[in-house]
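To illustrate the input format used throughout this study, we show a single complete record. The first block contains the structure-token representation of the backbone; no residue identities are included at this stage. The design step must infer an amino acid for every position from geometry alone.
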């Protein structure tokens, strides 16, 4: 994928703060770009796979101070390409927001359905689902951070914000792979903060709960008046990312009340386990955009009464 041609700054203006956001084509990433753009001295780098969306957002926010690079963060050369883009277009970096990610719902013992109508079939659960989820939600963040950390150090005081999830503190049936990736991201973030504090690089952590986005529509919750209230917005998550990055907060839950669930997991683990294995907990495991995309791309719709679990290709992020 070639880098787009567009009017872009060769270097950030004197006094500008260069801020990079991954997964910027929609949802929390797009909302974060809009929130950061409200800073008068912000110069933004938008990263995602969908070039047309990035181009439109950059034009809206102002191409004189916003650049973008369309790249799949799973590509071997993606971190180097992003680093080269930042150096060429801006010359410095003050904030990295690792936001890109996805999820497929599947229980670990789920067997993938057989391919139908020429489809490639879904992967179901098991190690395959854990592996592909870790690649996107953890490995890609680590690889990009490794490539950009020297630049962040040279521009200190600077910051990294890793967008994990409340599922990185409390796990549910059917989302074990997603939780594993977010638990890993949260643990690594704590260690990275301790290592980089002396170098002037702050590491903040944002743990969203249910946020209605293209990748996580949560329609099972938003369609019901008695559960709609627990779903928050990308704008609230963007405010939390701002706090963790610009205001250098250690971590933020979105909504803040979700921190109670994480605390209970430590203080009363048996109680939390009972709650999460009860019948009412099933409604909390919602269908993701990746699930929907896979069902359309890999197999015909399941007949009435049947179910399909697992996943295939992640939606563009």
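Output of the design step:
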């Amino acid at each position: 994928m070639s880098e787009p041609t567009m009017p872009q700054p060769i270097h950030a203006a004197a006094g500008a703060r260069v801020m990079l956001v991954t997964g910027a084509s929609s949802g929390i990433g797009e909302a974060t770009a809009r929130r950061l753009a409200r800073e008068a001295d912000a110069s933004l780098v938008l990263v995602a796979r969908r070039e047309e969306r990035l181009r439109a957002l950059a034009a809206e926010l102002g191409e004189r101070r916003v650049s973008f690079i369309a790249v799949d963060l799973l590509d071997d050369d993606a971190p180097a390409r992003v680093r080269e883009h930042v150096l060429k277009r801006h010359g410095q970096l003050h904030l990295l927001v690792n936001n890109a990610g996805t999820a497929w719902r599947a229980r670990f013992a789920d067997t993938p359905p057989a391919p139908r109508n020429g489809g490639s079939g879904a992967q179901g659960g098991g190690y395959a689902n854990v592996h592909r989820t870790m690649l996107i939600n953890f490995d890609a963040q680590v690889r990009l951070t490794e490539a950009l950390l020297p630049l962040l150090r040279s521009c200190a005081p600077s910051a990294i914000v890793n967008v994990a999830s409340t599922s990185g503190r409390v796990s549910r049936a059917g989302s074990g792979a997603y939780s594993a990736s977010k638990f890993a991201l949260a643990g690594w973030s704590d260690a990275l903060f301790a290592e980089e504090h002396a170098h002037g690089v702050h590491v903040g952590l944002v743990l969203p709960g249910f946020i209605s986005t293209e990748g996580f529509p949560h329609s099972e919750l938003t369609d019901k008046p008695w559960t709609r209230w627990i779903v928050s917005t990308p704008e609230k998550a963007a405010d939390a990312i701002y706090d963790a990055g610009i205001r250098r907060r250690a971590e933020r839950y979105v909504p803040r009340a979700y921190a109670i669930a994480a605390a209970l997991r430590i203080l009363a683990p048996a109680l939390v386990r009972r709650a999460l294995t009860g019948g009412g907990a099933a409604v909390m495991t919602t269908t993701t955009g990746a699930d929907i995309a896979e069902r359309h791309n890999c197999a015909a719709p399941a007949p009435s009464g049947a179910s399909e679990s697992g996943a295939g290709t992640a939606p563009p992020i």
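Structural context for interpreting the output: The first strand starts at residue 17 and ends at 22. The chain has a mean pLDDT of 82.
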